[in-house]
Amino acid sequence: MMMLTEDMWRGAAACLLTLMAFVAARGAARLAGGHPLANPVLGGALITGAMLWALSVTVEDYVIAARPLMGALDLAIVALGYVLVERLSGRIRLLLPILGALAIGTAFGIASAYFAARLFGLPLDFVQAISAKTVSSGFAIALMERLGGPPPLAAGLVIATGMIGALTVPPLLKWLKLDDDDTLGLSTGLAGHIVGTDMLMRSNAGAGAAAALAMAVAGLIAAVILPLFLS
Amino acid sequence: MKRAIELVGGLTVLALFALAGDVLVMVTGIPLPPAIIGMALFAGVMALAPKLRARVARASILMTGLLGAFIVPPFVGVMLFADEVQAHLVPVAVILLVTTPLTGLVTALSYRMLRR
Predict the structure, then answer these.
(1) Of A33, A38, A75, B74, which residue is the least packed, with the fewest Cβ within 10 Å?
(2) CB distance from B48 to chain A under 8 Å?
(3) What is the tens place of the pLDDT at every residue in A162-189?
């Protein structure tokens, strides 16, 4: 019984610390005028990391204590369904081009990472983990467990990919003038999954909804394609 | 007060769909994250029931707005893999930095081509 309450306090402290760090970083990002590098998730993680260091709490202990936030993340992912329906209702004729582009994008994302990893002669567990980087971490972990790759490594690479996608894809598309809401959202959601979706959701709800769609569909398509590469 | 009730009701609906995703994955064993199954179910029901959709709007908008806060722990957790990645840092960094924006670009061009 003592253990349980202690765990609960720890969990509450970890969640509170995380939320406060996020809100502080979001405030700072607004002051910075929404520059892509002033990402509240990245900033929140840096503040949290600094606090853990100051309080001499290990990252392992923190990640375990902050588990309740993963439950909240599930609710937020479900809630994306609302945004998605708001975005798609009355625009069903776009469904086919959207699904086609997402299928091509997912296949390219997996194949390019797989062949590049083979080309560099990376060990098998890296090849497996890197092939899953294009899909959101929830998918990547589920797929690795089924295909026998290393889930933690895949999750780490997925998050790194999400950061890179969220930071590189929107400026690239803007530069090429390919940045209407749908194109921007689908591409950023596919390449940068939840990190890209979250970023767009804050700046442009239409593109954010397209990103949520891309993230979900890419995961479904990857579940079909990935076994072809890894088995 | 009415707003608070609507919010709690909406959150309960979201939780029920998340739970439905959990149950479906457990029963069928499909290799997909339960939350994404929940999202697909939720989107399907919302498309068919506009009245219910209006009721869950407040909770949905709140939760999607906080999404970023909920992914902070895995971001912090990335540090745990630093040692594992270190031995292959350069190729891994090159692969991620090149293929990720390229994947986004291929998606954008495909969509533009198919939409016409």
Answers:
(1) A33
(2) no
(3) 889 999 999 999 999 999 999 999 999 9
